[in-house]
């Protein structure tokens, strides 16, 4: 199979996990290649996510790597078997890869938890709200890229609207509910949209009020995507230039604890809806 010129985030993660299993077993790429009766370049390209691997080969490698975590092996097999072409693929080569990686991460997660301090979470944004955010970019986006970014942002809503959506807990600071992104009407419409989404069984929205003061993680936007098995969980952080994706156990534990603390200081879902109603009526 020839190398992929545009590896997906999921393919790259599968490669990372296979490399971790190989290194834990103390095997070289040449030894792994011998298991598959191939050459080391195939192993290197697979671990880099540059091309796919069959489910059967995943099982064979896991067995020879002495991996006894059957849940992890089955999760990796599912990753290798999945041939989903997500809606985000239409933007490949057009938008920065990070945009696609975030959408893909959201789509394949079992559970999502997000905290944000100054803006509404991406999948919850209305078109008017998203347009106002991208209009504030420096340098100014070219018209075509501006429209493409807005379209991609709005389509992230699909993860909430599909037949089997993941559970989504959104922890939003009160500041994000009051900053008039796009003006009073755009913000009012955005707040009503959040209220509507909060009525869904799979969506939980909690607001951290100004009165909560300081709390762990207050300076970051955090997206925690829980996978089939905990070792495949991913945390995505917004950075100044590109998003950062973390999957080391200590980092996962740290950000899970931060989100736990945020939920404790946040208003209950019922109190949250009451506050959002109040803010919307003021606009």
UniProtKB/TrEMBL annotation:
SMART domains per UniProt: HTH_XRE
Cross-referenced Pfam families: DUF5753, HTH_31
Domain HTH cro/C1-type: 18-72
Family matches, as InterPro entries: Cro/C1-type_HTH, DUF5753, Lambda_DNA-bd_dom_sf
PROSITE patterns listed in its UniProt record: HTH_CROC1
UniProt-recorded Gene Ontology molecular function terms: DNA binding
Protein name: Helix-turn-helix domain-containing protein
